[in-house]
Amino acid sequence: VQLVESGGDLVQAGRSLSLSCVASGSIFCLNAMGWFRQAPGKQRELVAAVTSGDSTSVKDSVKGRFTVSRDNAKNTMYLQMNSLKPEDTAVYYCAADFRAETASWNYWGQGTQVTVSS
What we know:
Layout: E1 3-6, E2 10-12, E3 17-23, E4 32-38, E5 45-51, E6 56-58, E7 66-71, E8 76-81, E9 90-99, E10 104-108, E11 112-117
């Protein structure tokens, strides 16, 4: 499975962006997919995740602003980001197929840059 993110851009604070993560193969069998971000000088952090059963979770700092979803028919995961803040600036990565036994994700995208200006 290869993952390709898109939708990153330079936007002003308060605006919205929608990120997409398209998988080369079927995501139907993948147990979970997630969005991570990494800001300069900071560790990569999990922002949002969605399971194969469409259960979702988001990081507290983006709760109420970000929404994660997946469309198995389109092999795509989305991240809708509203009311963006400068602190949301980061490279956003999608990941798929979480393995609890190793606490790791099997597949990663190359990332898409999101820059929020004040």
